[in-house]
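Before going further, learn to read the protein records used in this course. A complete example follows; check for yourself that the lines match position by position.
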Amino acid sequence: MYYNYDEDSIGCAENKRMISKKYGTSKKGFTLAEALITLVIIGVIAALTIPSILINTEQNEYRSALKKALSILNQVIELNIALEGYGPIETVDMTSPDDEDSLYNFFRKRMNVLSTSESFDLGGTANYTFFTVDGMRYEFPTTINIQGGTFATNNGHCGTPDEPSEDMSGTEREAPCVIIVDVNGQRKPNPQKDSSKGYKVPAATSKSKILDVYPIIITDKSAFPYGVVGQRAAFQEK
């Protein structure tokens, strides 16, 4: 009787026997302790990184929303100058906010307004306010209570600091007006005003994080943020 042997099969089997003798054939997995340690390490890394990621994401959202609000405000100013022949320097005092030529109505009539309020109160001062369809809130104080700057007393006749401009009556105006923009409307954090009911504006050396509420300076021809935090948010990339 003759037997046919497959030489390749014999060689393979011999190799397997040699490997089995040298390294063993048993397979080991992770122990429970090793798995738990791995999960703890992952949890620690997540706890350290996720809050930072969320804060950065939130800061970027506020920054983008502020830039959008400034763009809209400046477009309204430019459009009104082009179509009507005058800018915020011709607005009347906010002591008469219902006047068609008040600062409040100057912007309200050219923006996508969802709702309005004549007594919006965030910390003690009733401001004329409107909410736009993109979820932002625009407050128009009847009197200015912003620390650290000189503004038009009754928040009207908005001029350019250090560059006096004349309104239609020939009167020079250089004190700007101020409005408050909350870039995410009623959603938090909505920082409260200070004890004097005035909005806090960080000092020039402030390291404060970017929030959702900004004082905005309105001059005879432009709008820009007041305070180092708002300016950093609007004009710096990061």
About this structure: The beta strands are 113-121, 126-132, 137-141, 165-166, 172-173, 177-182, 213-218, 223-225. The chain is about 35% helix and 15% strand. The radius of gyration is 32 Å.
